[in-house]
Amino acid sequence: MKKAATIKDIAKELGVSVSTVSRALQDKPEISDETKQLVRDTAAKLQYRPNTMAVALKTRKTYSIGVVVPQIVSFFYATVVQGIEQVANELGYQVFVSSSNEDMIKEMQNVYGFLDHRVDGMIVSLSKATDEFVHIHRIEGDNVPLVLFDRTSKEINVPKVVANDADAAYMAVSHLIENGAKRVALITGPEHMLIGRNRFRGYRAALTNHGLPIDNSLIVRCNLTVDNAKQATSELLNLKNPPDAIFGINDDVAIGALYAIKEKGLSIPDDVAVVGFSNSRRSSYMEPALSTLDQNPLKIGILAAKLLFDQIEGKPVAEGKEIIVPATLIVRASSDKSKQN
Asked: How confident is the model at residue 201 (pLDDT cuts 50, 70, 90)?
């Protein structure tokens, strides 16, 4: 087996000192651009790879960050990760991503695993099951820079990047009302979820400001899956006075609603209009296409990464700083009769 090249091999090849090679690879300003390029070219020719463990021991940095998301296959979370990687790659950091699969225990394991591997920082979106935060407080206790995004908690006082959930929900429900809805149902998630509480505030405000009553029979909870939302929608449609519109707090919920409405033989949006939240990839391919709110996930990822690297680099970041990224309402055929084929 061929022995891995070292900086000594590069120095010997070029006839320069080891310290010159080291400083060139670190892009130090005292080394000329010409020498830096020669060193990089020779390193590539010799297939040199830095010893990350040695670098970590010397600098106390691993040049890696950990990202924990609720679902790795979600278009929203995948796009957030793209934004994070865009910033991290420019700074020479590796990004390691793990999924909690909406399970708090798995989320804890992911966090502790990243801590064991000495990542330089973490970006986390909480699972829908997470109602305890000992593992998140452990990150803080270990003085590891941390940013939360999308699904957060008021109990955790760290920098956050979130959508304008209440305002976005207000926009969605107002759109339904302005298109003729009189009885707008809300299908939300577990009570402890902050995004659910915030989106409920927007729902309630839209009804109130449009002079409509708040009917608790039209507010139901589910576990945010398509199947569970389909069942919840069936129960709503079987009410003596059923809804004529449904706002789902995510696209899976809204898609479950679409299936239930069609199974009932009702027309969308003529009998029941539907709006979701997150602009998932399949939302535009549904029949009818699903109206939804685009949370601008690429921007969320970029901003979350910038907040994290500011902390890693020792720049001042307010402890509870929260950046709000406005969501955009995308109107499609599920809520607008004029868009039907």
From this structure: very high
